[in-house]
Amino acid sequence: MKRSILLVEDDTLMREFITDYFKKELWDVHEAENGRVALELFERVSVDLVVLDIMMPEMDGWSVCRRIREKSDVPIIMITARAEDEDQLMGFELGADEYVTKPLSPRVLVARANALMKRTERTVGREAELLQYGELSVNREAHTVTVAGELVNLSPKEYDLLLFLIKHDGKVLSRDYILNAVWGYEYLGDLRTVDTHIKKLRAKLGDAGKLIATVIRSGYRFESEA
């Protein structure tokens, strides 16, 4: 199956250079010269991978990565001219899957992209659409949640929050981190929003809801059953 990529790079020559290498490997390439164009393209076309430069005009790569992660788990490779650990940690915290520093070799970049896609495709192939935690079941394809076979009506944000907590099974998550990841960095509400939605989730899920959010110090942790 032919793969497609969204390549976001403000340097025209570098973008064309990278595009040529991906096309030689039979990728469909959608090019964007800045973050704003990248997000517009992402809404219109379906891609299997995003290669994203960090330092760009209008909107930097951090912001683009954050916006993409609000709605998609598409693999992301970030490119930067700086090799500081803080930059890489920021990228991974925002949801990047790979990190490449300049000067880069387009051949190596394509090889990393191919390897990342193979890992991702194997994971997706194994990943069940039905998530089961005791009596709690989440059907990601149908976007439904049931407890002991009974359908539970969740708001879109409650559903997103539940999936986010499940994805971070066993991890301690601060209220601030949850708010930014589920509601987005532009959200103007306060941290009590997280507590309110957690409370509603637990009430709707009954005994099964006790699994989803145990308070740990100042944060929450999802605890699945063994």
From TrEMBL:
Annotated ranges, domain OmpR/PhoB-type: 128-224
UniProt cross-references to InterPro entries, sorted A to Z: CheY-like_superfamily, OmpR/PhoB-type_DNA-bd, Sig_transdc_resp-reg_C-effctor, Sig_transdc_resp-reg_receiver, WalR-like, WH-like_DNA-bd_sf
Positions where 4-aspartylphosphate occurs in the chain: D53
Heme keyword on record: no
Gene Ontology MF: a single term: DNA binding
Lineage top rank: taxon: Bacteria
Alphabetical UniProt keywords: DNA-binding, Phosphoprotein, Transcription, Transcription regulation, Two-component regulatory system
Span of the signal peptide: none
Domain Response regulatory residues, every copy: 4-117
Gene3D superfamilies: 3.40.50.2300, 6.10.250.690, Winged helix-like DNA-binding domain superfamily/Winged helix DNA-binding domain
Keyword Transcription belongs to the record: yes
DNA-binding region per Swiss-Prot/TrEMBL record: 128-224
Name of the protein in question: DNA-binding response regulator
Native organism: Paenibacillus glycanilyticus
